[in-house]
From TrEMBL:
This is HNH nuclease domain-containing protein. It comes from Gryllotalpicola koreensis. SMART domains: HNHc (SM00507). CDD domains: HNHc (cd00085). It holds the Pfam family DUF222.
Length: 456
């Protein structure tokens, strides 16, 4: 009996010895062992099934005429005959025949599957890149690559080995990369779906070069940076339990760290992508639409905007947004009053109130450098200008009443945990509030140094 067959019989023997068993009744150690035994037996079954499929395919060759096994079983194709005999689905029978045929082009992998070293799922993802190169590659190099990948599969998950297979494929067929790139460029697309339940689905495919450029920017602002953490240092009077404004006790040493950003990496990527496009809309070189740079047009009744209760609508989107979101957009982007008659006739068109001019934004960028919330790395060009005293409450649209915030911190600023105010020296100050505790006020400068202490 061949060594592989002996190992297969041993795997089934180990499985049979512990059957029947219920995974729910096993300890952690027993479950891990059980999973390995089941998987080993499954790999040998995969090898047997693909071996049968390969032989059905060979014996059903059309050149055999009436001697074709498929014809004898009343089928036109080998997978039809396999479906009849095994009573599996047509799709599964066809998949087995195709996979077995592909493995025959890579004898090292074919033997590994037959020996139970690789299962079907492993072989499929690992072989796919090599199969694309096998027709033009040196057979000796292909055998070396396959051997290396089979050895790797003994220690690594199939997904990790598949990455190595893609590297090998590029080595085996270096000329195949450029045609693949051209095909990828033709398939690129980006779509924005319609709003449903307050969300719009973003889908698309990007060539590797474009994706890498976007990923580099996203990763730079999503990944934590060493040494960038900032603490509100409880020094001076605040350390003695007196808040600078006398309203709340200062934080104790156990609460000196600012709040942790609760966003997931995926959420941060979405916020960064939004910031990039918002910055692009303000760029001088961006094409205009109707004489103006790309803008979000929000329609909201005046009483709703002022009261903060009710709904608003963005032009082109079916779902409404909250009045709070409308206030935030107006805070940063400006507004224009339009008086309508009960029938919808325009009675009066007010002048556009620009909340912050380009010159004011440049001044804010020079002062704040970026989002002023500690630990936030978003640069000035990606931020929104925020009124420290809301414009709806009479706050002036001036540099002395403004600070730069990224979209996320602009979104949460009214609900905490951060609070902002303008310092006596014309520099914004920030603190954070936790229940009945509050940190000292500190100068709100972009990515301040860790030794930053309490503001004067």
């Amino acid at each position: 009996m061949a060594e592989a067959e002996q190992e297969g019989c041993a795997a089934f023997a180990r499985l049979t010895a512990i059957l029947p068993t219920s995974p729910q009744l096993l300890t952690d150690d027993q479950l891990v062992e059980y999973a390995g035994v089941v998987e080993a037996a499954g790999r040998f079954l995969d090898g047997l099934r693909l071996g049968v499929a390969r032989e059905f395919d060979r014996r059903s060759d059309e050149t055999l005429g009436e001697d074709s096994l498929a014809r004898k079983l009343g089928a036109r194709k080998p997978w039809g005959a396999l479906e009849t005999v095994t009573r599996t689905s047509a799709g599964e029978a066809r998949a087995r025949v195709i996979e077995a045929s592909n493995l025959a082009k890579l004898p090292v992998f074919e033997q590994a599957v037959a020996d139970g070293v690789l299962g079907r799922a492993q072989a499929e993802v690992i072989c796919a890149p090599i199969l694309k190169a096998v027709s033009v590659a040196d057979p000796v190099a292909v055998e070396i690559a396959c051997t290396e990948l089979v050895n790797l599969s003994a220690a690594l998950p199939a997904s990790a080995v598949a990455e190595a297979a893609r590297v090998w494929a590029a080595v085996l067929d270096p000329d195949g990369i450029q045609p693949q790139e051209k095909a990828a460029v033709e398939k690129r697309f980006l779509t924005l779906g319609r709003a449903r339940n307050g969300l719009v689905k973003l889908t698309g495919l990007l060539p590797v070069e474009q994706a890498a450029a976007i990923r580099a920017v996203l990763d730079a602002y999503v990944n934590p940076r060493a040494g960038s953490s900032v603490a509100f240092s409880p020094t001076g009077p605040a350390a003695d339990g007196i808040d600078p404004d006398g309203s709340k006790p200062a934080l104790t040493a156990t609460l000196e760290e600012p709040p942790v950003d609760s966003r997931s990496a995926k959420q941060k990527r979405a916020d960064v992508l939004h910031a990039v496009f918002a910055a692009a809309a303000r760029a001088p070189e961006t094409p205009t639409m109707g004489g103006a740079h790309p803008s979000i047009l929000v329609t909201v009744p005046k009483d709703v905007l002022e009261s903060g209760r009710g709904a608003a609508w963005i032009d082109g989107e079916a779902d409404p947004i909250s009045s709070t979101a409308a206030q935030r957009i107006a805070d940063s982007g400006g507004y224009q009053e339009v008086e309508l008659s009960p029938t919808g006739e325009v009675l009066n068109l007010g002048r556009t109130e620009r909340c912050f001019t380009p010159a004011q934004r440049r001044a804010l960028a020079a002062r704040d450098k970026g989002c002023v919330i500690p630990n936030c790395d978003v640069p000035a060009r990606w931020t929104e200008a925020h009124h420290l005293k809301a414009w709806r409450d009479g706050g002036p649209t001036d540099v002395i009443n403004a600070a730069l915030l990224c979209w996320w911190h602009h979104f949460i600023i009214d609900d905490g945990p951060y609070q902002l105010r303008m310092g006596d020296d014309g520099v914004p100050e920030v603190r954070w509030v936790f229940g009945s505790h509050a940190s000292p006020w500190v100068k709100a400068v972009h990515r301040p140094a860790p030794e930053l202490t309490r503001a004067a």
